[in-house]
Write a structure and sequence with these properties.
The complex is a heterotrimer of chains A (221), B (227) and C (254). Chain A is built from eight helices and no strands. Chain A has helices at residues 2-47, 50-65, 68-78, 88-114, 117-125, 130-160, 172-183, 186-215. In chain A, helix 1 runs antiparallel to helix 2 and helix 5 crosses helix 6. Chain B is mainly alpha-helical. Chain B has one domain (2-215): Orthogonal Bundle (MetI-like fold). In chain B, 81% of the residues lie in helices and 0% in strands. Chain B contains eight helices and no strands. The longest helix of chain B has 45 residues, at 2-46. In chain C, strand 7 (166-170), helix 6 and strand 8 form a beta-alpha-beta unit. In chain C, the strands form two sheets. In chain C, strands 6-7-8-3-9-10 form a six-stranded mixed β-sheet, sandwiched between helices. With 254 residues, chain C is an alpha/beta fold. Chain C is 39% helix and 24% strand. Chain C contains nine helices and ten strands. The radius of gyration of chain C is 18 Å and the shape is globular. The chains are: A mainly alpha (221), B mainly alpha (227), C alpha/beta (254). The A-B interface holds A 61-62, 64-71, 73-74, 77-82, 159-163, 165-166, 173, 176-177, 180, 186-191, 193-194, 197-198, 201-202 and B 60-61, 64-70, 72-73, 76-78, 80-81, 155, 158-163, 165-166, 173, 176-177, 180, 184-187, 190-191, 193-194, 197-198, 201-202.
C-alpha cells in the first residue's frame, strides 16, 4: 500500500501535472480561434455570395465528415512532404482549430437562421449597412442562442485534445501512457488520467453554464 | 502526379479492406451500444432510484473520458485485469460500444420523455403491464424519433473508430499510415483515407435518412406534437 | 330511480382520499354506480374530477379508500390491476391514441397484446368496434391523419373493444373544436341508450342533462350534492351549485 501511495505521489502525479499543463495550453490556444473562425464560416455560409457560401459549405463537410485524427495526420505527417513543418504542439493546435471551427459554425449558422427576418429588416430600416446589421443586431442574438451547442463542442475539445498524443505531442494522455508503460500500471494510471479529464470537463461545463446565465437576455426563454 | 495516382490505385484494395474493418468496428459498436442503450434508457426513465443512479454514473463516466483514454484503460488495463485476453479488434468494438451505450441511452431517454405520459396512461388503462406498454407502445415510437440522433451517433462512432489505430487495429487509418511510411508519400495516402471516411460518413447518414422516411408515421409531425 | 336501470351495483367507490404535493385533491368520495347507469360528474376545474376517475382504475393510486368492481375489490397489485383495468374502459381528454398505430391498430392492440386474442379474430372485432363509432372507412389512417372528433371516436372504440363493465370518460370533448363535439357526444349517447354503464366528467351541461341518470356536483375534493338531472338543474340544494350551473351554462351554452 505504501509503495502504491509513493508511486502515485512521487511519480505519477508530477508527470501527469506536466501533461495536464500541456493539455490546458492546447485547449486554451484552440478555443478562441476556433470560435472566431466558426463565426466567420457561419456568416459566410448564410450571407456570403454563391462562391463564398459554397466554399464554406465544402470546408464544413470535409472537416465534419473526416476523423480529427486523420486531419492531424495530414497536418503532422502529410504537410512536411510538401515542405511545411509544424512542431507536434502547433500541428495539434492547428488541427483542433480547423476541426472545431467547422462544428462551431454549424451551431452558429443554425442560430443565425433562427433569428426572425424582421430583425434584419428593422436594422436596415434604421439605415444600417448589412455588415453593421450582422455585427450589431444579428450576431449578438445568434451567438447567445449558439452557446449551448458551442459549449458542447468545447467540452468535446477538452476530451479530444488527447489525440494530440497520436502526433507525438506529450500531453496528459501521453504522459500517462509513458508512465503506464514504464511501470506497467495501466489500470491505475489511466483511472487517474480519466479522473483528471472528468475534473476538467466538470470545471469547463460549470464555467460555460455560468457564462450562459450571465449572457442571458432577461425575459427571453 | 501520375505516379501518385498509380500508387493510390495500387494501394486501394489494401485500403478498402481496411474500410471493411472500420465498418466492422462501427457496426459492432453501434449494435452493442444499441442493445445496452435501450434498457439503460428504460431503466433511467422507469426504473427505481438506485437503477437510475447507477445508469447516471455509467453515462457520466463513459461520456466524461476521452475515447483514447478509455481505449488505453480497457485494452491495456481492465480487460487483462479481468483475465480477458482480447484481440485489439474485439477490444476496440467493446470500448467503442460501451461508450456508445452511454450516448445512445441518452438519445433514447430523450425520445421516451418527449412522448409525454399520456401514451403510458392510455396503455395502462387498457390493462397492459408496464413492460407490455413499454414494449408495444413506448419503444416503437421512441425508436422512430431517435433515428436522427442515431444517425449522428453513427457519424461520431465512425470518426472515433480511427482512434483504434492507437492499439494497432488494422482499420483504414492504420493501413493508410502503413502505406505512407512505406511509400514516403503521406499526403496522397492520407487524403485518400480522408476521402473514404467522407464517403462512409455521408453514405451512412444518407441510408439512415432513407430509413427514417420509410418508417415515418404518416401525418406525424416530429418534435412538434399536436393534439 | 329511473326505469330500465338494473339494480345490480357494478362499481362502488368508498371514501377515496388523494393528496398531491401536500394538497388535498380528494377528501373522501363515495358513490355507487348501477348497471346501465350513466353518472355525470360536474364541478369547477381543479376539484379533482379527473383525479377521481384515475383513482378508480388506479392510474393514480388513492391514499385511502376502497373500490369494488362487480363485488370484487380493486387492489393495486401488479397482476390484479391489469385484470381490473381491462374491465374499465377509459377515454382521455386528449385522446392519447398510440401515434405509431393506425386507427385499426389502436383498437386491435389491447385485444392482441392484453387479451391475447388471435390476429384475425381481433381484426374482426376491431372493425366491428370502428363501425359502431362510424369510422370503418378511416381504419387504415394514422392518428395524425384524423380530425379531433375522429380521434376521440377511435379512442372510444379502443376502450369498448375490451368489453368493459364500465366506461370512464374524462372530459372527452374539452379538447375538441366546437363543430366536432357533436359527433363524439352522439357516440356516447348511443352507448347510454344501449345500456353501457358509464361515468362521465364533462362541461357539456345540455348533454349531461339528457344522458345522465344522476349528476354529481363536486367541489373542492368533495361531493357537494347529487341527484337526478331535473332536481339538480331546477332545484339545487345549494347556492354554490346554482351559481356554478348558471356560469357554466353562460360559458358553454346548453
Amino acid at each position: 500500500m505504501n509503495e502504491f501511495y509513493y508511486f502515485i505521489r512521487e511519480i505519477l502525479l508530477p508527470s501527469l501535472f506536466e501533461g495536464t499543463l500541456v493539455t490546458i495550453k492546447l485547449i486554451i490556444f484552440s478555443i478562441p480561434l476556433g470560435l472566431i473562425l466558426g463565426v466567420l464560416i457561419a456568416v459566410g455560409r448564410v450571407y456570403g455570395n454563391r462562391i463564398i457560401s459554397f466554399l464554406c459549405a465544402v470546408y464544413v463537410i470535409f472537416f465534419r465528415g473526416t476523423p480529427l485524427l486523420v486531419q492531424l495526420f495530414i497536418l503532422y505527417y502529410g504537410l512536411p512532404s510538401v515542405g511545411i513543418f509544424f512542431s507536434p504542439f502547433v500541428a495539434a493546435v492547428i488541427g483542433f482549430i480547423l476541426c472545431s471551427c467547422a462544428y462551431h459554425s454549424e451551431y452558429i449558422r443554425g442560430a443565425i437562421q433562427s433569428i426572425k427576418s424582421g430583425q434584419m429588416m428593422a436594422a436596415e430600416a434604421l439605415g444600417m449597412s448589412r455588415v453593421q446589421a450582422i455585427l450589431y443586431i444579428i450576431l449578438p442574438q445568434a451567438l447567445r442562442r449558439a452557446i449551448p451547442g458551442c459549449s458542447n463542442e468545447i467540452i468535446y475539445l477538452v476530451k479530444y485534445s488527447s489525440l494530440a498524443f497520436m502526433v507525438t505531442c506529450v500531453e496528459l494522455t501521453g504522459a500517462g501512457k509513458i508512465i503506464a508503460t514504464r511501470y506497467f500500471k495501466y489500470t491505475e494510471v489511466f483511472l487517474v488520467v480519466g479522473i483528471i479529464y472528468l475534473l476538467m470537463v466538470s470545471v469547463v461545463t460549470k464555467f460555460l453554464d455560468m457564462l450562459e446565465k450571465k449572457l442571458e437576455i432577461p425575459g427571453l426563454g | 502526379m501520375v505516379e501518385n495516382f498509380l500508387m493510390i490505385f495500387q494501394a486501394l484494395p489494401y485500403l478498402l479492406r481496411g474500410s471493411l474493418v472500420t465498418i466492422g468496428l462501427v457496426g459492432g459498436a453501434l449494435f452493442l451500444g444499441f442493445i445496452m442503450g435501450i434498457p439503460m434508457a428504460v431503466g433511467q426513465v422507469y426504473g427505481n432510484k438506485l437503477i437510475a443512479n447507477l445508469i447516471f454514473f455509467y453515462v457520466w463516466f463513459f461520456r466524461g473520458l476521452p475515447v483514447l483514454v478509455l481505449l488505453f484503460l480497457f485494452y491495456f488495463g481492465l480487460f487483462s485485469l479481468m483475465g480477458l485476453n482480447l484481440p485489439a479488434f474485439t477490444s476496440a468494438i467493446l470500448v467503442l460500444g460501451l461508450r456508445s451505450a452511454a450516448y445512445q441511452s441518452q438519445i433514447f431517454r430523450g425520445s421516451i420523455q418527449s412522448l409525454g405520459e399520456g401514451q403510458m396512461l392510455a396503455a395502462r388503462s387498457l390493462g397492459m403491464s408496464k413492460i407490455q406498454a413499454i414494449w408495444n407502445i413506448i419503444l416503437p415510437q421512441a425508436l422512430r424519433i431517435s433515428i436522427p440522433g442515431w444517425s449522428n451517433e453513427y457519424s461520431i462512432i465512425l470518426k472515433d473508430s480511427a482512434v483504434s489505430y492507437a492499439i494497432g487495429v488494422m482499420e483504414l487509418l492504420t493501413r493508410a499510415n502503413f502505406i505512407s511510411t512505406r511509400t514516403y508519400k503521406p499526403m496522397p495516402v492520407f487524403l485518400t483515407c480522408a476521402l473514404i471516411f467522407l464517403l462512409l460518413t455521408y453514405g451512412g447518414v444518407k441510408v439512415l435518412n432513407l430509413l427514417e422516411k420509410k418508417v415515418r408515421i404518416p401525418g406525424y409531425a416530429y418534435g412538434r406534437r399536436e393534439i | 330511480m329511473q326505469k330500465g336501470i338494473d339494480k345490480v351495483v357494478v362499481l362502488e367507490v368508498e371514501d377515496i382520499h388523494k393528496k398531491y404535493r401536500g394538497q388535498d385533491i380528494l377528501k373522501g368520495i363515495s358513490f355507487k354506480v348501477r348497471k346501465g347507469e350513466t353518472k355525470v360528474i360536474i364541478g369547477p376545474s381543479g376539484t379533482g374530477k379527473s383525479t377521481l376517475l384515475r383513482c378508480i382504475n388506479q392510474l393514480t393510486i388513492p391514499d385511502k379508500g376502497r373500490i369494488w368492481l362487480e363485488g370484487e375489490e380493486v387492489i393495486h397489485t401488479k397482476k390484479n390491476i391489469n385484470q381490473f383495468r381491462q374491465k374499465m374502459g377509459m377515454v382521455f381528454q386528449d385522446f392519447n391514441l398510440f401515434d405509431h398505430l393506425t386507427a385499426l391498430g389502436n383498437v386491435e392492440i389491447g385485444l392482441t397484446r392484453v387479451k391475447r386474442m388471435d390476429k384475425d379474430e381481433a381484426r374482426q372485432k376491431a372493425i366491428e368496434e370502428l363501425k359502431k363509432v362510424g369510422l370503418e372507412e378511416q381504419a387504415n389512417l394514422y392518428p395524425a391523419q384524423l380530425s379531433g372528433g375522429q380521434k376521440q371516436r377511435v379512442s372510444i372504440a379502443r376502450a369498448l373493444a375490451m368489453d368493459p363493465k364500465v366506461m370512464l370518460f374524462d372530459e372527452p370533448t374539452s379538447a375538441l373544436d366546437p363543430e366536432l363535439i357533436g359527433e363524439v357526444l352522439e357516440v356516447i349517447k348511443n352507448l347510454a341508450i344501449q345500456g353501457m354503464t358509464m361515468i362521465l366528467v364533462t362541461h357539456e351541461m345540455g348533454f349531461a342533462r339528457s344522458v345522465a341518470n344522476e349528476i354529481i356536483f363536486m367541489e373542492d375534493g368533495k361531493i357537494l350534492e347529487s341527484g337526478p338531472p331535473y332536481q339538480l338543474f331546477n332545484n339545487p340544494k345549494y347556492e354554490r351549485t346554482k351559481r356554478f350551473l348558471k356560469k357554466i351554462t353562460e360559458l358553454y351554452g346548453e
